[in-house]
Structure formats: structure tokens, C-alpha cells
Design a protein that fits this description.
Layout lengths: L4 E14 L8 E15 L2 E4 L6 E6 L2 E6 L2 H13 L3 E2 L16 E2 L6 H17 L3 E4 L7 E2 L3 E8 L6 E10 L2 E4 L1 H9 L7 H5 L5 E4 L5 E4 L1 H14 L10 E4 L6 H7 L7 E5 L2 H9 L17 H16 L3 E3 L7 H14 L7 E5 L1 H14 L5 E3 L5 H4 L8 E5 H6 L1 H5 L2 E8 L10 H7 L2 E8 L9 H10 L7 H14 L3 H11 L3 E2 L14 E7 L3 H25 L5 H16 L7 H4 L5 H15 L4 E5 L2 H14 L3 E4 L6 H9 L5 E5 H4 L10 E4 L6 H8 L12 E7 L3 H12 L18 H7 L6
Parallel strand pairs: 1-8, 9-14, 10-16, 17-22, 17-23, 18-20, 18-21, 19-20, 21-22, 24-29, 25-27, 25-28, 26-27, 28-29
Antiparallel strand pairs: 1-2, 2-3, 2-7, 4-5, 6-7, 10-11, 11-12, 11-15, 13-14
Helix pairs in contact: 5-6, 5-17, 8-9, 9-10, 16-17, 18-19
Length: 762
């Protein structure tokens, strides 16, 4: 008995499929891929369906009887079926039209990728088993087995810093551009099929070639390849001969090498080398030395952030520093500015645009960390005279409202760098603020925001429309290519493509990711702007208190006037906290408190991110007002004051999670508590003695705390609160302060008193 050699011939035959849906028969005849199975016994060939168990063959001694090896033939049929082939004898009689000579069906409902997988994946295995495999001349699922990828980059003549990328394969020395076919595959996700579903559980991805054949790409290669195509494709041309991209998209080119690393010969590059070199640089920021004039020690992650900012500047790209709140975006930006100054690149000033409540904070932080930088504040009613100082300035600070009012003046000059703080302010591309910032003429652009995406991906597009309008194309293109596939179809591959595209230009570190680099506590001062009736009430009380204090000092002397001064300052502080604390008829008519509203904005943000919060105040009546607001909003809370009976029970309840907000009076909660389950501390009305305030903060940051602690002090901008903090810092009385218990005295000069009772700054 001879052992036969299986021979498979792949072809196309008509097969009738029953598409009945329960309401009646519906037969459909399709041209489907089939296999004819033969067995070679020496020079003799028999079909698998031949019923004979033996046959005659001429030999040297005459005719020979050859017995068929039924076991070997059956095993061959099982091998085919293991690869998904279906024996036609198992189908109903109506499925096989007359004249069909095939033996196996290779896929009824399979798509082109699965059918090409048989050619690219199964056929080589059959040949490795010693089978003979043939393809009929008209078999449509032929695959190219010997192809090498190439990528050709050409600069665009019409636009500098823009390029065109052609991508394809070389077959028999001839280049075949595959971009139209690859874009068609990519576009299938916009038609309802995600990229993940395209490559999931497939053995190959079939890319159509112009000659009717297919290139079989392994799924992982296809996944990476289509992700890169997704980064560069702008969606305008359905069959692009080349992908147009700017330098900010050059970071995708190294990922093309990574995606096709397993392909035969990798990728052969030709044409311009500049964007590929830039792409390599974008993916690898080099460390930089901290500026000599910076009066701060950068944490490791902050130093890395400054290196990243310098890296973007060197590449001529803009970016988004999106670190979590409290990680020092302001300090990193100031260090970046200081480096630019030392390198002599700050020939034109940098412009910082911030919310009104933060513009003064920028001036204070610049003076604290980089006092050698010349700063001009373009805020308030006196700003117009300061425009003349810009030619000698290093940094200008303005606010979004001022930007709208002074749009023409700010857009008329050249800036070295424009920084948008709380950049999500311009997330609406149709807002006046967005249009105004786009008009600013700057060599470099930077966005600072802890929330680059709050509601939808369109907000991210809006930020990059400011940074580089060409990166994502227009808003409609971005919606079609990214928003719809990601937000509506849950396309993880398209999301990964978007992440890859923005990753060189967006740096985001969360507190939990850099915990080992965090300082013992991150302290943030949040200025709040007093407005309207609250501002008028402050000024009315300030004028009366100032006059009264002057008379007392004149009569009794400064040293003997401590109590009257403290009383006057306390009343002003109460106005800053909430007018409802002030025992005056005029105060009862003030309906709004800026600091009270800012507190609840902060609580909403922190609680929404899963943080747990301690709120300290010296005024128990203020805690009662906050408690009422929490109750109205349905937020569980606990309160600890000097009147609380069972402190330990309250602490235990908070630690086990009965509430995520703990309201504590500074006097009652300054010592003797361990509240390490909280990671956020809010000082509603900062204590004049920083040592006492630090003790309260340390209720959360102490042994047993595993998370970084962010400490936020709310102060009324330009008020006695801010003036006292500035006074403390200037005179370095951080240990004792100006007000405090335990024998601490109010140590002020008459000039200090005059400053504390000065009018609110504009």
C-alpha cells in the first residue's frame, strides 16, 4: 500500500446559501472559494470523491493493483477541516449546483481577510507538510509572499515645515503605493466597524493591491500600522497618494518603524530625513540644567517637566502641561522662562494669560522664584500706562477679560512665548476668548491645565487649534476621525492613535504617579476676587476701621493698640470669608460670598476625583454656614469644633468613610488628631500664625499617610488676607506670625498697619 501525497487546488465555484429568516425560503447563489482535493499515488492522481478503493497502474511487470490508503486520505481531509474547510457532502443537495467539482468550501460568511488568511497562513503550512498546493488562474484571494515595505518623504513646496509621506511595498523591484488601500481600511471604523474588531482574532489583514492580489499583514503589524496612519490622515482625501503632515506630527514616524519591525527587511526610508530625525528627537527629551537664578529646588518630576518644555521649544512645537493640581505647573513654567532668559532667547517678552483670580498669583510666584525676571502686570485700570514698559520686560501678565478688552494691542506685537493658564477657559472654539488667543503672534505656545478634557474630545481639539491649527485638521474632520469612533463606537484603537498623536505634546502626571517625588506637602494659595456688594462692604468697613485704628494708635501708641488692631483686622477677615459673619445691617443685605462659592467649586472638583477633604476655619460660625451648604447639596460631612464632645468618635467615623468632608475649627483640630485618610486640606481663612496652620495641615500629613497631601489656602485677593501673607514673607516672620495664641504678639510697624488697611487693589 502506497502513501499518497495530498494535492489541493484552490478555486471559485457557485454555492447556493439558504438565507431564510423564518418568513420564507430565500436562496442565494454566490461565487465562493473552494478546494478540490486530490491524492497523488506516484504518477496516478485520484479525486478525494473517487469511490474506488483500488486502481490499476502500469508497471515494469505489467499492470499493478494499487490499494488506496484510506486512513491517510481521511487524515488529509481532517487536516483541511481543522483549518475551517467544510466538506461539501455535508451540505444540503440544493447547495451544490450541477457541474461543481469541488470537495470543500473554504468560507461561507468569511470576509476577504479570512479568505486571504487561508492563502497566506494555511497554504504555507500545507506545503510544509509535503502537500502540493495549486491556485486556479481566476482564484481571487492570491497573496504576495515576497514584498518589502518602503516609506518616501517629500517636503511640500507650498508650505514650509509640511511634508508628504508615501507608504507601500516593493514587489519584484516595483513600488506599489498602499496608502489608498490602508486609508480605506482605516475609514471602515468611521462606517461602524472599530479598528479593534478589524484585527481581533484574525490571522491576517488583507490589503488590496492594484493587480488584484493582496498583501497579507499580520494583525499586530496592521494594528500599529493603521494607528500611525490614523495619526497622519486628515480625512480630506478618500484615496490619498500621500499623507500630508506638519512637523508637530513627526513623532508618528518612529512608530512606523516600530509597527513594521517584524516585516521582511523592516521599512526602507527615502527622501527627506528631517521629519524622521525630528520625530526621534520629539520622543526623547534630553535633561537640562536648572536655571541659576531660580530660587527653588525642583523635584525630579518637575525637572523632567522643565526638560520637556525646553524640548518642545527646541523642536518649535507647542504643548500642554496637564499635570494634576498641586504638582507645580506654575513653578515649572517659571523655570522654563528663567532658562530662556539665561540663554538670551527672551528678546521678546513672554505673555501669561490667566483667570483674573490667578493673575496676581503669577506675579507673586515670579517674584518669589525668579525675581531677576522683569515682570509687567497688564491688569487693572492702570494697565494702559504699563504697555510702554513691555520693550524692557521679560514677562507680561494679563487676564482673559483684559485680553478681550485689549485684544488689538496684545495681538499687534510679537511675543516670545504665550502661556495660557487654566487653558480650558478657551475650550469653546466659538468663544471670543478662543478667537482672541489665536490672534496672538508668538514664537512658542504653551497651555497649562489639569483638565485638558472635561466633557468631550472636542475640547482637546480646541486647545490644539490654538497650539497648532494644522495638527488635527478642522473641527469636522476631527469629529469624524476621532470623536465619533471613540465617543460613540468605543474604538480603543482609534483612541490609542489619538494618544500617540498627542503624546509628544501633552505631559500629564498624576499625584499618584509621582508620589515618591512629591514634597511633604504641596501648598497652593488660591486668590479669590471680591466683587460687587461684598467688595463695597469691605471698603466701607475698611475705611471706618482704618480711621478708628489711626486714632487709637495716635492716642495710645502702637504697642498698646494690639487689641483694637486685632478687632479691626478680624472684622475685615470676616467680610472676606462671608458677609453673613459680620454683625452689621449693611452686611445682611449682601447675598453672595466669592470665597464661599470658590470653596464649593473646589469641593465639587476634589470630591469628583475621589479625594477626601479637611476644611479648617477659625470661625465656627463659618463652619456652620459651610455645613448648611453641604446639606443643601446632599454632601455628607462631619464637624469638629471646641463644642464637640466625642472627638475620637468623630475621627473614627471619618477614617472609616462615613463622610468625605470634615469641617474642623483650627483651635479644636490643630493638635491631637490623625486623619491620614484625607489627602486634601483647605484653609478657608488662613491663620496668621503659619506654625499653627502647619500643625493643622499635619493632621493629614503624618506617619501613616500614603498619598500626597495638597494644601489650599483661600485668600481674598488684594485684601488684608493677602497683604498679611505678603508681609509675613517679606519680613520672614513665618514662625511667629502677626496674630496667634500662646503668647505670640502682633509685631507690626506703623507702615505695616497702613499697608494692611490699604484699599483693595484693582
Amino acid at each position: 500500500m502506497e502513501t499518497p501525497t495530498p494535492r489541493v487546488v484552490l478555486g471559485i465555484e457557485p454555492v447556493t446559501i439558504d438565507r431564510s429568516d423564518g418568513f420564507g425560503a430565500m436562496l442565494e447563489t454566490l461565487e465562493l472559494p473552494v478546494a478540490r482535493l486530490w491524492f497523488d499515488y506516484g504518477d496516478s492522481r485520484l479525486a478525494a470523491c473517487d469511490p474506488r478503493d483500488r486502481f490499476f497502474r502500469a508497471g515494469p511487470g505489467g499492470m499493478q493493483v494499487i490499494l488506496r490508503d484510506a486512513v491517510a486520505e481521511a487524515r488529509a481531509g481532517q487536516v483541511l477541516e481543522s483549518f475551517g474547510a467544510v466538506d461539501l457532502e455535508c451540505l444540503p443537495d440544493h447547495a451544490i449546483p450541477p457541474g461543481v467539482v469541488a470537495h470543500y468550501l473554504l468560507g461561507c460568511d468569511a470576509d476577504v481577510h479570512e479568505r486571504c488568511a487561508f492563502s497566506s497562513w494555511v497554504v504555507p503550512q500545507l506545503r510544509a507538510l509535503g502537500w502540493h498546493v495549486e491556485l486556479d488562474e481566476g482564484y481571487p484571494y492570491r497573496v504576495v509572499e515576497d514584498a518589502t515595505w518602503y516609506a518616501h518623504v517629500e517636503p511640500e513646496e507650498a508650505r514650509p515645515d509640511w511634508f508628504g509621506l508615501e507608504l507601500g511595498v516593493e514587489i519584484d523591484g516595483r513600488r506599489v503605493n498602499l496608502l489608498p488601500a490602508l486609508v480605506d481600511l482605516l475609514s471602515s471604523s468611521a462606517r461602524g466597524a472599530s479598528l479593534a474588531s478589524l484585527v481581533e482574532r484574525r490571522r491576517t489583514i488583507a490589503v488590496a493591491l492594484p493587480d488584484g492580489r493582496y498583501l497579507a499583514v499580520p494583525p499586530e503589524q496592521a494594528r500599529g500600522l493603521l494607528r500611525v496612519i490614523g495619526e497622519l490622515y486628515d480625512g480630506d482625501d478618500a484615496e490619498p497618494a500621500a499623507l500630508r503632515f506638519g512637523t508637530m506630527s513627526a513623532g508618528a514616524l518612529p512608530r512606523l518603524d516600530e509597527a513594521l519591525a517584524g516585516a521582511r527587511g523592516g521599512v526602507r526610508w527615502s527622501g527627506s530625513t528631517r521629519p524622521r530625525e525630528l520625530g526621534e528627537v520629539l520622543s526623547d527629551p534630553a535633561p537640562v540644567e536648572p536655571p541659576r537664578g531660580l530660587r527653588a529646588t525642583l523635584r525630579d518630576y518637575q525637572a523632567a517637566g522643565v526638560a520637556w518644555l525646553q524640548h518642545l521649544r527646541a523642536c518649535g512645537a507647542g504643548g500642554i502641561l496637564a499635570d494634576d493640581m498641586g504638582l507645580g505647573k506654575t513653578l515649572q513654567t517659571i523655570a522654563h522662562l528663567a532658562i530662556e532668559k539665561e540663554a538670551g532667547r527672551l528678546e521678546d517678552p513672554a505673555l501669561i494669560v490667566a483667570p483674573t483670580s490667578l493673575s496676581f498669583n503669577w506675579a507673586r510666584e515670579l517674584a518669589k522664584f525668579a525675581p531677576h525676571l522683569r515682570v509687567v502686570a497688564l491688569t487693572g485700570a492702570q494697565r494702559h500706562a504699563r504697555y510702554a514698559e513691555l520693550d524692557r520686560a521679560d514677562v507680561a501678565i494679563t487676564s482673559y477679560p483684559v485680553l478681550l478688552r485689549d485684544e488689538e494691542r496684545l495681538a499687534a506685537r510679537r511675543w516670545h512665548l504665550v502661556v495660557l493658564d487654566e487653558a480650558h477657559t478657551v475650550k469653546n472654539p466659538r468663544s471670543r476668548a478662543h478667537r482672541a488667543v489665536k490672534r496672538i503672534d508668538a514664537a512658542h505656545r504653551l497651555c497649562l491645565t489639569g483638565t485638558p478634557v472635561e466633557n468631550h474630545l472636542g475640547e482637546l481639539w480646541s486647545l490644539f487649534d490654538f497650539l497648532d491649527p494644522g495638527l488635527f485638521g478642522d473641527e469636522l474632520t476631527f469629529r469624524r476621525v476621532y470623536r465619533l469612533p471613540i465617543e460613540q463606537l468605543g474604538d480603543e484603537e482609534r483612541l490609542a492613535s489619538l494618544r500617540d498623536k498627542v503624546s509628544p505634546y501633552l505631559l500629564r502626571r498624576l499625584k499618584r504617579d509621582v508620589a515618591s517625588e512629591l514634597p511633604p506637602k504641596t501648598e497652593i494659595v488660591r486668590p479669590v476676587e471680591l466683587r460687587g456688594d461684598q467688595r463695597e462692604l469691605y471698603e466701607r468697613i475698611r475705611l471706618a476701621a482704618h480711621e478708628s485704628v489711626r486714632r487709637v494708635i495716635q492716642k495710645q501708641g502702637l504697642a498698646a493698640s494690639t487689641v483694637p488692631i486685632l478687632d479691626a483686622l478680624t472684622k475685615l477677615r470676616q467680610v472676606c470669608c462671608d458677609p453673613r459673619l459680620v454683625a452689621m445691617r449693611a452686611a445682611h443685605e449682601v447675598r453672595r460670598s466669592a470665597k464661599y462659592e470658590r470653596l464649593f467649586e473646589l469641593l465639587d472638583a476634589q470630591l469628583g476625583r475621589g479625594h477626601r477633604v479637611l476644611v479648617f476655619s477659625q470661625f465656627t460660625r463659618m463652619l456652620a454656614l459651610i455645613a448648611r451648604g453641604l446639606s443643601e447639596r446632599g454632601v455628607p460631612y462631619l464637624t469638629l469644633t471646641g463644642e464637640s464632645r466625642d472627638r475620637a468618635s468623630l475621627v473614627d467615623r471619618f477614617e472609616r468613610g462615613d463622610a468625605d468632608v470634615f469641617l474642623i475649627s483650627l483651635k479644636a483640630g490643630g493638635v491631637g488628631l490623625t486623619l491620614t485618610s484625607a489627602d486634601t486640606v483647605v484653609h478657608y481663612d488662613p491663620w496668621w500664625n503659619p506654625a499653627a496652620q502647619d500643625q493643622a495641615t499635619d493632621r493629614a500629613y503624618r506617619i501613616g499617610q500614603t498619598r500626597p497631601v495638597v494644601v489650599t489656602s483661600l485668600i481674598a485677593r488684594g485684601s488684608v488676607e493677602e497683604r498679611m501673607l505678603a508681609l509675613q514673607e517679606r519680613k520672614r516672620r513665618l514662625a511667629e506670625g502677626v496674630l496667634g495664641g500662646g503668647g505670640a504678639r502682633l509685631a507690626l510697624s506703623e507702615d505695616d498697619v497702613e499697608e494692611l488697611f490699604a484699599p483693595l487693589t484693582p
